[in-house]
């Protein structure tokens, strides 16, 4: 009868703990990022979200101050760079953020929409009927 070695069972326990801690961090990440931002460490919040490819929280961080009109959003340049760098992965969360927060298509800078369409391919219309 084969038995697991203590090391093997310890490794699996460590793996389980790693998974649980990862899940907890995923749940707490929005709070951590927001706390960093509120304590004047927004650059670290953005960097952490970028490192984890956490596009939902990047979209949220980009909209913590003035959102509309888009040209007054202090994160407008950052949003443009994320669209160019992360393409559809970021824009999907950007649009979702706007929908969840009651912002309508006209609140999104047309530059963002055009950049997204270019990133996806000009023939692919991300926002049908939005007129951009």
What's this model, at a glance?
The protein is an all-alpha fold and 132 residues long.
Shape: globular
Give the proportion of residues in helices.
55-70%
Domain unit count: 1
User: Low-confidence stretches at least 5 residues in length (pLDDT < 50)?
Assistant: 123-132
Query: What is the β-strand count?
Result: 0
Roughly what fraction of the amino acids lie in strands?
under 5%
How many helices? The count is: 6
Radius of gyration: 20 Å
Would you mind describing this structure in some detail?
The structure is a single chain. By secondary structure, the protein is an all-alpha fold. The protein has one domain (11-120). The chain contains 6 helices and no strands. Helix 1 runs antiparallel to helix 2 (42-51), helix 2 (42-51) packs antiparallel against helix 3 and helix 4 runs parallel beside helix 6. The longest helix has 33 residues, at 6-38. The chain is globular and about 55 Å long. It starts with 5 loop residues before the first helix and ends in a 12-residue tail after the last helix. Mean pLDDT is 78; it is low at 123-132.
Give me some keywords for this one.
132 residues, mainly alpha, disordered C terminus, globular, single chain
Secondary structure layout plus pairing:
Blueprint (H helix, E strand, L loop, with lengths): L5 H33 L3 H10 L3 H7 L14 H11 L1 H13 L9 H11 L12
